[in-house]
UniProtKB/TrEMBL annotation:
This is Lon N-terminal domain-containing protein. PANTHER family: ATP-DEPENDENT PROTEASE LA (LON) DOMAIN PROTEIN (PTHR46732). It holds the Pfam family LON_substr_bdg. Residues 56-93 are annotated as: Disordered.
Length: 251
């Protein structure tokens, strides 16, 4: 069933179950937060987070976006999804996003907001509407997890988990502490890997748009193996001979 959703363009990709803190200072998104906070108790305080494909970013800041590729980008049937930067320049959006549920709001003395959100459910933008509200709204269709690939996902999950643990030993100071917290559920694991591995925004967007968990895990297996191989190569580069030179002893 289609729904109308406030849309928040960002220079990042949000996945279900992942935390996204935001620092908000643009007037239209401050208005969006006021709207969400004014909803009746029990009403989901959700807005859509959509990654920017091209153009300037909205006046918010999110966590740092690590940088890396899988096959061609999924073909979009609606390539013209646009918003506008405060300076008036067009901003082209990706078609698939994830809703963010507002969990915590901290008001700053100058009116800005620090908010904490959590990703909930994926959607595809069917059409955008400008002018009805200060912020962008869109007609969206929900993208539930399709049935039929559960057995393949169950087979892939342990392999991805194993490769991800090895990958963490190459990029983290204390990988053991992190690997102890890794989930066994294939869907949750697929979202966590997509959000936390050092991938480009393009890679992450492709993973978010992948229809099912098995497809996502399969792509992540290739990405993690590639990234781990690159990291091992970097670490195996010989130290220049000049760095090994020792001054001759006068004795």
């Amino acid at each position: 069933m289609d729904a109308r959703l406030p849309v928040f363009p960002l220079g990042t990709v949000l996945f279900p179950g992942l935390v996204l803190p935001l620092h908000i200072f643009e007037a239209r998104y401050l208005e969006l937060m006021r709207h969400l906070r004014g909803l009746p108790d029990g009403t989901p305080r959700e807005f859509g987070v959509v990654a920017i494909r091209r153009g300037g970013s909205a006046s918010v800041s999110a966590g740092p976006e690590p940088e890396s590729g899988i096959g061609p980008e999924p073909r979009s049937g609606r390539p013209g999804l646009t918003d506008r930067h405060p300076n008036g320049s067009p901003v082209t959006l990706h078609e698939v996003g994830c809703t963010a549920e507002l969990r915590q709001v901290t008001e700053l003395p100058d009116g800005r907001l620090d908010v904490v959100t959590v990703g909930r459910r994926r959607f595809r933008i069917a059409g955008v509407e400008e002018g009805a509200t200060p912020y962008l709204t869109a007609e969206v269709e929900w993208l539930p997890e399709p049935a039929g690939q559960e057995q393949l996902a169950d087979l892939l999950a342990p392999r991805v988990l194993s490769v991800f643990r090895r990958y963490l030993t190459l990029v983290r100071d204390d990988p053991e502490e992190i690997s102890e917290q890794l989930p066994d559920d294939p869907t949750v694991l697929s979202h966590l890997v997509a959000a936390t591995a050092a991938l480009t925004l393009t890679d992450r967007q492709r993973l978010l748009a992948t229809p099912d968990t098995a497809g996502r895990l399969s792509a992540e297996l290739r990405l993690l193996n590639r990234e781990a191989a690159l990291l091992r190569q970097v670490r195996a580069v010989p130290v220049p001979l000049t760095e090994l030179a020792v001054p001759a002893s006068p004795n």
